[in-house]
Amino acid sequence: MSLYIIQSSGELTECYNKEVAIKSENVLLVISHMQKKIYTWIGGQASPHSKFACARETARIRMELGYKITNLEESYSTDEFNQAVDEACSVDSTGKSSPKPKPLAVKPAPKPTLKTEVKPKPKPKPKSKPKPKTVTKKTVKTEPERRYSSTIDTKVIDVEHVIKQLKILPPMSNSIRDYIIIDDSLYIAPENLDKPGTESKVSLQDGSFVADDYIPRLFLENGKIIAIELWRSV
Fold this sequence. Notes:
Blueprint: E1 2-6, E2 12-14, H1 18-21, E3 27-32, E4 37-42, H2 48-65, E5 68-73, H3 79-88, H4 159-168, E6 175-182, E7 185-188, E8 214-221, E9 224-233
Parallel strand pairs: 4-5
Antiparallel strand pairs: 1-2, 1-3, 3-4, 6-7, 6-9, 8-9
């Protein structure tokens, strides 16, 4: 059993105290090897960055262990989840915490060692007397320089305009919008910001993750995909 608190930076902090873990501002990830399940618990005041990191880490761990994922909100929990938390926070007869499991972080691949090959120096060729050349004058016609016009559309997408258009659309039933993808950037949905006017763009590390807990909805203008909304079922 393992219980982790997911920080807004994406770091997983292992915890053995249930009172410290079960708080409204926390996002929890519980791995139950006995039940072969991965539980996620989202507090009512949890930050959007912690929620996004939870979805990424849960998908990665499921690919490693093959366990089923169960998502829970603060207002709802199950007996199986409480049992998994209690077992993760349990101590042995000596009063010491149970040994920590091996970290789940993927070890980086070793860097390849570069070998340099020393090429032998070529043998010098014997010098030969140059033959006299007959120089003839030729008139070389030069073609005029061609100029190509760029056909690439460099129009910058107005993020505020797109978000205003998305606010007009009706929300998806029984779902919460967490994120919006515009161009090549990820933004927190305006309704999830802690304070209006704060920076909503999410800074992510390179890599890939499976966002199977989200339902995408496309927004198109003039036959082009302008934005993608990520909705989470509740």
